[in-house]
Design goal:
Blueprint: E1 4-13, H1 19-28, E2 34-35, E3 48-49, H2 63-68, H3 71-87, E4 99-104, H4 110-122, H5 132-136, H6 140-149, E5 155-158, H7 164-177, E6 183-191, H8 195-202, E7 226-235, H9 236-241, E8 248-257, H10 267-281, E9 288-292, H11 299-313, E10 321-323, H12 326-329, H13 336-350, E11 352-353, E12 376-377, E13 382-389, E14 393-400
Parallel strand pairs: 4-5, 4-6, 9-10, 9-13
Antiparallel strand pairs: 1-7, 1-8, 2-3, 6-7, 8-14, 11-12, 13-14
Length: 402
């Protein structure tokens, strides 16, 4: 089994157009959620979100590329560019077959579908853009990233709702660790901030109209965000041999199914995923210094997650720091876990503990240290990233400092 290093990271989200901007915003406790600027906004009940503002695709892509790329794919390529540039990886003809891509997305090109439905049903048109299918398919981001850098190794996409990114990164970790790939480009992207996307979520009645306040007694629902984060997972010895900067080491992954309810979480399933990640990492609960929580801001999810952490960590839950950065960037659905891994890397690399912002009052059922409102500086050896999706699908990554 090979060790797995993280040698590059990239992102675009409502907090920043790069990793340094995003981490700085997290360290400042700055919230990127605000009023939405989208078509048909006045017909929405929920009018806030973590929107990437003033993003002009023409600044990044040629006209022909723009005709091929849904907004979510554009975000994925922007993030992948930053990650690969940071990694300094020279993708030679010999290395190319050993470099793959696996990205997560909950809905793929929903912006493209929303625009097409509006044209058909709203405007009465009889035709849609000829590239609707390749623009909207869930694997589009992985395929376009592979083509942009000639990455000829394993390439696929994972779609498991809110756990998509963590499942994708867990798969990438296993591919490198078992020697099926030397390098994997992995993470996730999502852009559901359109009329149809938000209307669908409104129907579930889990959305907040005034802000995301995970673990707070006054919390009243989740807030959507959009964007992407992409990482370079590389065989540790290969990274060392070329003198790459190693940001962190991926050491464990756990995944489980609740097998109980399509929307209500079961803390026992989440606890098994946390315990599985620790077991896979060969470490104990006492070594965990920080957890980036799934922390959506819904009553059921936050309460269930706190129970799960206590079940999995035991007495160590009393001292672990656990925050939800969704309070700042919103819930990126399939892209959430990827953006949240940035906070875990900042914790193990720089000792930056991102806060849970918007916190107003403690909830007795969420009585862990949720790092309310203000970031901390504290050394962390091991960090966990939790993702617990509709369908009862749980995926937890463990990373450590190097």
């Amino acid at each position: 089994m090979y060790r797995v290093a993280i040698t590059g990271q990239g992102t675009i989200n409502c907090l920043g157009r790069s990793v340094p901007e995003t981490v700085a915003a997290m360290a400042e406790g700055r919230c990127g959620i605000g009023d939405l600027d989208i078509l048909l906004r006045d017909r929405l009940s929920v009018r806030i979100g973590g929107q990437v503002r003033d993003f002009d695709p023409a600044d990044h892509f040629e006209r022909q590329q723009r005709s091929l790329y849904d907004r979510s794919v554009q975000f994925a390529i922007v993030a992948a560019t930053e990650a690969l540039n940071q990694s300094g990886l020279d993708i030679s003809e010999a290395l190319s077959p050993e470099v793959g891509v696996v990205l997560g997305s909950g809905c793929g090109g929903i912006q493209t579908l929303d625009q097409s439905y509006e044209a058909l049903y709203g405007q009465g048109k009889n035709r849609v853009h000829p590239l609707v299918i390749p623009r909207s398919m869930t694997n589009a981001a992985s395929s376009h990233v592979s083509m942009a850098w000639n990455l000829q190794g394993p390439c696929y996409s994972v779609s498991t709702a809110c756990a998509s990114s963590n499942h994708a990164m867990g798969q990438a970790f296993q591919l490198v660790r078992t020697g099926q790939a030397r390098v994997m480009v992995t993470g996730g992207a999502e852009s559901m901030l359109c009329f149809g996307g938000i209307k669908a979520w409104e129907g579930l009645r889990v959305m907040s109209r005034d802000g995301c306040r995970p673990f707070c007694r006054t919390r009243n629902g989740m807030v959507q965000g959009e964007g992407a984060a992409v990482f370079v997972f590389e065989e540790f010895g290969h990274a060392e041999s070329r003198g790459a900067e190693i940001l962190a080491e991926v050491v464990g992954f756990g995944m489980t199914a609740d097998a109980s309810d399509i929307v209500l979480p079961d803390p026992k399933g989440a606890a098994r995923a946390i315990a599985g990640a620790l077991r896979d990492a060969g470490t104990d609960s006492g070594s965990v210094g920080y957890i980036n929580a799934h922390g959506t801001g819904t009553t059921a999810n936050d309460r269930s997650e706190c129970v799960a952490v206590r079940l999995a960590l035991g007495v160590a839950a009393e001292t672990v720091m656990m925050s939800s950065t969704k309070s700042m960037h919103g819930h990126l659905i399939g892209g959430a876990g990827a953006v949240e891994l940035l906070a875990c890397i900042a914790a193990v690399r720089d000792g930056i503990i991102a806060p849970t912002v918007g916190y107003r009052a403690p909830d007795p059922e969420c009585d862990l240290d949720v790092v309310p409102n203000t970031a901390r500086q504290h050394p962390v050896r091991v960090a966990l990233s939790n993702a617990f999706a509709f369908g009862g699908l749980n995926a937890v990554l463990a990373i450590r400092s190097v």
